[in-house]
């Protein structure tokens, strides 16, 4: 079953990081008129790599599955910080470079944000399509031939 998990792990992790990026970009768009708001984004490739490494580390460290199905690292001391599933955290967020200054200190450029939002949505859909193709291939391989 570990190989089956590994087969789907990449696309599942990519979908999770893409969804988190979509939330960040949506927050930028929503705060386009907020004074002193600084546009944020992530480096998708670096965040995906970090998330995949966290998934491998949690599996290697005998991760315990909680009652709701979420993975968490087993801790051996009360002061240990429980690990997550390798998502994007505050340290991964980057400030978007200022393209054009504004009087109110807001760094959101609507066109840049909408373009990044649509690009991320297209990549998200592509990940779903690849995941569906993998599931169809797996189903075809497991079904008896007529």
UniProtKB/TrEMBL annotation:
Keyword terms: Bacterial flagellum
Localization per Swiss-Prot or TrEMBL: Bacterial flagellum basal body
GO biological process: bacterial-type flagellum-dependent cell motility
Pfam families according to UniProt: Flg_bb_rod (PF00460)
Residue ranges occupied by any Flagellar basal body rod protein N-terminal domain in the UniProt entry: 11-38
Keyword Transcription regulation appears in the UniProt entry: no
InterPro entries: Flag_bb_rod_N, FlgB
Cellular component GO terms held in the UniProt record: bacterial-type flagellum basal body, rod
Record carries keyword Plastid: no
Record's signal peptide: none
Highest taxon listed in the record's lineage: Bacteria
Record-linked NCBIfam families: FlgB
Assembly with partners or alone: The basal body constitutes a major portion of the flagellar organelle and consists of a number of rings mounted on a central rod.
Functional description taken from the UniProt entry: Structural component of flagellum, the bacterial motility apparatus. Part of the rod structure of flagellar basal body.
UniProt similarity note: Belongs to the flagella basal body rod proteins family.
Name of protein: Flagellar basal body rod protein FlgB
